[in-house]
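Q: Could you write out the predicted structure for this multi-component system? I'm mainly interested in how the pieces pack against one another.
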Amino acid sequence: MKDNLSPLSPIDFDHMSSEDVMVLNMGPSHPAMHGTVRMVLTLDGETVVKCDAEIGYLHRGFEKQCENATWTQVFPYTDRLNYVSPLLNNFGYALAVEKLLEIEVPDRCNYVRTILGEVSRLSDHFTCVGAGALELGAMSAFLYAIEARELLWDLVEEVTGARLTVTYARVGGLKDDLTEDFPERWAAVEPRLHSTIDRLDRMMTKNRVFMDRMQGTGVISPEDAINYGFTGPVLRSTGVAYDVRKDHPYFAYDRVDFDVPVGTTGDNFDRYLVRVEEMRQSIRIINQALRDLPDGPVSVDDPRIMLPEKEAVYNTIESMIAHFKIIFEGVQVPAGEVYSFTEAGNGELGFYIVSNGTGKPWKLRVRPPCLYLMGGIDRMVEGGMVADIIPTFDTINMIGGEIDR
Amino acid sequence: MIDYVAILMLGLVGVAMCATVVALSVLFGPRNPSRWKGTAYESGSEPFGDARIRLDVKYYMIAISFIMFDVEAVFLLPWAVVAKDYGAYGFVVAMVFVTILVVGLVYEWQKGGLEWD
Amino acid sequence: MDLVWELLIILLKIVVVVLLFAFPIGSLMTLLGDRKQSSLIQNRIGPNRARLPGINHPLVGIPHFLADGLKMIFKEDIIPRQANRFWHTLAPAISLFPAIALWAVIPFSDHYCTGTATMVDYRDVCVDGAFYNLFSISNLEAGLLYVFAISAVSVYGAAIAGWASNSKFSLLGGLRSSAQMISYEVTMGLSLAGILIIYGTLNLNEMVVVQGQLLWDWLPMWGIVVQPLAFFLFLAAMMAETKRAPFDVPEGESEIVAGYFTEFSSMKFAVIQLSEYVATVFVGSLVSTVFLGGWQVPWLYGDGFYFGNTDEPSIPLPYWLVIVLRVGSFSIKTLFILWLQFMLRWTLPRFRYDQIMTLGWKILLPLSLANLVITAFVVLVLL
């Protein structure tokens, strides 16, 4: 794989004495390394000649934990993967298990998942764009973005009951339907989101200082991006229009109309622009999905998969048994393996699960999009200046919980 | 003379203020030195060596350019103050000087002395 | 007047200027201009928790500024083991010293006239008496050169602080700040050469007096009117000198943590911070002195407002009121420039380091040279 990569500019390490270079720890406890990561930088003056990214500071053994939990008990763990958009992880995992179960969720569920998934994606992109502005010194833009995120998280809280640890999806459906007034609340939030996006656009997109910082920094070629396994906005910024929602549609994405924005140069500015445009597209998707939202149940009607109503559990023996079986033994997933992938905030979020026919996963492996982005970060920052690490690291939008699992 | 005495007094007041505030923290602040507290901050990791390394030549380039242009600025300021009195003669002389300055700037620019990478 | 009396007056002036103007405004503007105003920009409430004993009201956050200073006193002063203890201790003082010393030459109002003040050809004259320097600490003839000299000293504070800490982030910050400050010093000097040609003096009070002249009998000859380009060049250079955003890369907290004062804590940290804020206030006062007419109120001279070059004032005012108006005018202009700097800070992202250098050497320096040549030429032609 290394042979496929275009060569970096050669560095003459042999003729460089240890006095010429400065080896500097950036992270784990550094204001710019949010999400706890360590970069060991070799600097020549202010130029980065070598960058070693070291991850693992937030490792909690997610994959191993899951092997000791029933299929349903994994949901809270997935909340903590990409903690800025927990709903997308929830839905991604639910989709994987449903594929292995070979069940179809009701149409309304698909639409609700689409809607809330895009709300989550919006919050992810708002955080990323805002934090990028903050680290370049534009604190006001950050607070505007975070204010918009609060609106989104209020929506999420209203539906799911939590802002961050939502645990909203279930195998075969959802915990609850959308609240009745969700469309009205969304209609109230939507113009404010638009105005925030436009405001950020005005503050940054045409700001000379911002452009100078972002343009031409952290560049990666489409070939390198593909070889490293980049996905999501970072890949799209190089001009490769790969979006799981478009190329391998799931949920209701094949029934809504949206564009996949792509960049041309693959630098930080393009990544920023792609994210801003994706926010606009997400709003479009939500509007369409809300318009077409079908009636009906949000969960499959199968007592072996979904918990019955509490009322029924207390009053009928069949429901009591079903409840008991799901809680104690878990959903019985037939033996087999499946790789299922969805488009999360940072790219392709894959779940590879193996079942041995019991109520617990035999093996659960996550493909976090950030891991591959961090794998290629040295290629993006080497040869640039120390200050360029800041926007590059931010537009990659590494999330510690997801990368270290 | 009294003007210079005033500056001296202001300087003394400044020094006294620094001494007072630092002394305050020495008097009232806690002192619990420890091995890890005493290490240089390097993002929570143990530092690789210290910061006494050979510095990049670019900083010296900047310093040399500064000396050139600032000394020339120092020559220009006295002329500027009396420029009205010297009239055309002074103007021509100063322009010759500025031309040399500009040539130097252009030369350094062309040679890449102002480039940062 | 005898010497003791004179020294006492100087001491009084120092106390008033430094302790009652520079520091309170420096630290108050930190709070009101920086924290409270930024909170308004960003739809937040801002500091509102600290209370003065007995007063159950946030008082727009002023207690926070007291609490912050008080808190610093009770913090541990940590000196890294490998640091150079001597210079590490001295560095904050070296930063604060120029920030204070610079105030020596700023005129807060015109010299006090012991006789009767009136106006001749748009200039104050003192009948039956003499002008006595009461409103600036020192009436140096080479006032502006003094400012340049002292502000050059402030480079040492940052450079020594960065080097003495013997930490890599501090070193990078120290190198960055010294390179940035010396780069912009060139522009700072050259951008003022044009205005020196017009004013023909280095004495700051005399500069302000000259700015009382009227063009075409109605337009005050403020620096910003006769040298608009130099105003922006000088403001940018001064902001870079004091390392304010968007030129705050030496302490750009995201990449090199806190820059040259990463290793400073307790009151030493506070002193460095304070010196930066005092320097920021000084920028406001210097820019308003040189470019915004300093203590001048348009058309106001020794005994009132003159609309036209007449013998009697159109609106006569008592002398004490004139002084109050002038000091007030100077303060308002200073605060305005200060406010402008804070607004810029909350609006713009910061430059990258090489971009600052490019801006300084390739844009501001040629522009200030061009400004000088054009000014000299125009003055030559007009005379």
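A: Regarding packing and overall arrangement: Chain C has one domain: 2-382.
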